[in-house]
Amino acid sequence: MNVLVYLVPIALFLGLGGLVAFLWSLKDGQYDDLQGAAVRILSDDDLPSEDTGKK
Amino acid sequence: MADVVDLSLFVRYREDGAAFVELAVDGIGAPECINRIEGGLESIAGVMEARLNYTNHRVRIIWRAGEADPNAFLTTLRNLGYRAYPHVAHAVEEAEIRKEKWLLRCLGIAGFASMNIMLLSIAVWSGNATEMSVETRDMFHWISALIALPAVAYAGQPFFRSAFAALAERRLNMDVPIVVGILLALIMSVYETMNHARNAYFDSGVMLLFFLLCGRCLDQAMRRKTRAVAGNLAALKSETALRLDNEGQAVLVPVGALSSGDRILVRSGERISVDGVVLEGKSEVDESLITGETVPRQAEIGSTVYAGSTNFGAALVLRATAIGEDTLLDEIERLLDNAASSKSRYVQLADRVASAYAPVIHIAAALTFAIWVAFGASFHDAILTAVAVLIITCPCALALAVPVVQVVASGAMFRSGILLNSGDAIERLARVDTIIFDKTGTLTLPEQRVSNRALIDSELMDVAARLALSSHHPLAMAVAAEASDRIPLDNAEEVTGEGIRALVNGVEARLGSLSFCGMDRSDNGSEISGVSHVAVAFGNKRAILHIRQALRPDAVETIDLLKRSGISSLRIMSGDRAEAVEPIARALGITDWQAGMTPADKIDAIKGVQGLGATVLMVGDGLNDAPALAAADVSLSPISAANLAQVHADAVFLGERLRPAFDAVVISRRSRSLMRQNLAFALLYNLIAVPLAFLGHVTPLVAALAMSGSSVVVTLNGLRARYRSLAERESPKGAGESKVEDMVLGNSP
Asked: What is the mean pLDDT of chain B?
């Protein structure tokens, strides 16, 4: 049963990692524009051939 | 038009000195709009970043202060085909956003905790079935406690607060038994863990919290979405006023930027936005929005005019006496609060169930304890069983039964173009059997229309419409609505009281009174009541435009649908003259109509119908309808309504069509039947679970399965409100939907 000594902390650590990632994404405003995010991924404005945007 | 709005009020600054402004944008359809808007704005010199939020249709523009003029943003957007207006974040909306984030944080924590505790619990359950040393089991229980206690302390706050608030007011809501159940489960689990017991209920308590928070988050997301749309609409129709500065220059400023004592110019046909005293000019003002009186009142130097009235005659200069909060409109609103409080007596279905349910389960738990003791069980076992009864009856399914349906139904209404003001409106709408319509602006379109357009030469119509764009006269607005492009003629000149003229390709064009266009009264043909005539002359072509109020395009069809859907009585109550109401009533096939009603008459009539046991839905817009809207059991307003009417309506519908009135009733009825199914299911679950718990068969495994199972079933049943409404809405949408509606419908063009 000694294996529990590190397996349980690892499980908890992974869970906490997920929680921290979620809280960070929430704070970062990742859920503010869900529809926009779905649509933006299809736009090509980051290609160098286009020069409409500044970036 | 060339009016320039003073935007300085809306500009804010970041710490690094960059200025930013948030604009509500109307007319966003396909996803390409994102690139077009952001690209267009970022090409303006000085702009650092433009970011469009595609969900709530707002764009945030950040620029180096002083290097760009915010008005250029509006112009750029207008040239791209979008209407934009600065958006001021309302305290209410910001509070909703904060609350949503808070709930999501709670949800995240509850989710993390329930998953990790379940991980440990499954080990304990299988360990109990085989052999697991007491020390290992205790360790797992203690780790569970370590996760569960802080998680519940944080994530349980929404429920703790609501339950304590209810108890402080000496009433019971659904959160009271929830809080009691969760707290008892945790306390008992800690106690049992200290005594090296086989079972603990940490998993049940936290999982319960997780499910309930899911429901709360969905509810909150829906509410915030509605708020965002309402906020955009408010920004887009927000009022401006022409303030005269010391040199007599008129500057267009938002009403919010005015202060008492300012001199304000009100041109012909404009809405007066403040209470004030006339300094210069003589005119007639239409106060029908405030008093219901349709005959205009004379206004001359020294007379007082009120916000909300319309200037019908020549331009007036006012000195503002009351702004915003202090206006007469606001005064009426305060008086109305009394009428509205009668509606809040309605107790929501969920709360009615809660106040009956909570005492029953608490008594059941007490009885369990007493009976077990009476039959000779140990004190310890009796308490354990009683707590198990409380945990298993903790109304998880019951607490989700109504809100889930409410969320899905308000989503369905949202897609139909209905914004709900109050959550319990769905329950009240479902019981409606009498509908009372106001006429002007409700059954008819809010603006007047040219009714004989088909008979007019199209070139002549085009000239008339472009001329009309330069005038603020109410009749000219109706003509201007027919314009194909909205570019006014640059040399247009208004002749006060007569009309407007301009040179088009070297030929004089006139729009205005019959005599102004060189026509005779006798050309007019027969006078029809309710129809105004405007003449147009271009070269030697002449025509008379008939301007009248038109029915909403689908009014006849909608009234027909309502009649067939089992609404027993449809009525029209109008403040207008009988001659104007009669033809409308006949066209719609409504036999029960009354004309010339004052706001007090309307209230009396509604009270009378209610006295006979009917549940009344009032559909109306004007300020004079506001008391009637408050007096009815449930009320609906078109978005064009006076702000005050909207405040008192339970729901607001968008667009030109009347169909949302029918959709609202149908969706509500279906929702109510789903709510009842869900409640019935939740009660059935309890009928099975309570005897099991009473007999002591509820182990943590059974509790976890039963509670999550019932929650999932109730949620899935609630979702049916959405799918059936979608199937029903497959009928093609009518053409000519307004831009506002497109905005709400999202990306469907």
From this structure: 77
Q: Please say if the pLDDT value at position B735 is more than 60.
A: no
ipTM: 0.82
Annotated domain spans of chain A:
3-40
pLDDT of residue B339: 40
In this prediction, residue A51 carries a pLDDT of: 46
The H-or-E segment that residue B637 falls in is: strand B634-638
Contacts of B35 in chain A (CB under 8 A): 43, 45, 52-53
Any residues with CB less than 8 A from the CB of B234 and at least 6 apart, and which? B90
Contact B428, B563 (CB under 8 A): no
What's residue B270's pLDDT?
72
| Start-to-end C-alpha separation, chain B | 27
Interchain CB contact of A26 with B (< 8 Å): yes
Chain B residue with CA closest to A26: the answer is B101
For residue B486, pLDDT beyond 80: no
Mean pLDDT for B241-254 is 74
Question: Which residues of chain A are modeled with pLDDT < 70?
Answer: 1, 44-55
Q: How confident is the model at residue B31, as a pLDDT?
A: 76
Contact A36 B55 (CB under 8 A): yes
Distance from CA of A32 to the nearest CA of B (A): 8
> Which domains, and CATH codes, for chain B?
1-87 (3.30.70.100), 94-230+350-407+669-728 (no CATH), 239-334 (2.70.150.10), 411-445+553-668 (3.40.50.1000), 446-549 (3.40.1110.10)
Q: What's the confidence (pLDDT) of residue B741?
A: 37
Contact B108 A26 (CB under 8 A): yes
Give how far the C-alpha of residue B96 lies from the chain's centroid of Cα atoms, to the nearest Å: 13
Instruction: Provide the pLDDT for residue B91.
Output: 65
Angstrom distance (rounded) from CA B678 to CA B409: 14
Rounded distance, CA B161 to CA B280, Å?
57
Stretch B210-219: mean pLDDT? 84
Closest chain A C-alpha to B140 CA, distance in angstroms? 9
pLDDT band of B685, cuts 50, 70, 90: confident
Name every residue in B having a CB less than 8 A away from some CB of A: 31, 34-35, 38-39, 42-43, 52-56, 101, 104-105, 108-109, 111-112, 115-116, 119-120, 133, 136, 139, 143, 147, 746-747
B232-237 long-range CB contacts below 8 Å, 24 or more apart? B232/B24, B232/B26, B232/B56, B232/B57, B232/B58, B232/B87, B232/B743, B233/B639, B233/B654, B233/B740, B234/B90, B235/B24, B235/B85, B235/B86, B235/B87, B235/B88, B236/B24, B236/B26, B236/B83, B236/B85, B236/B740
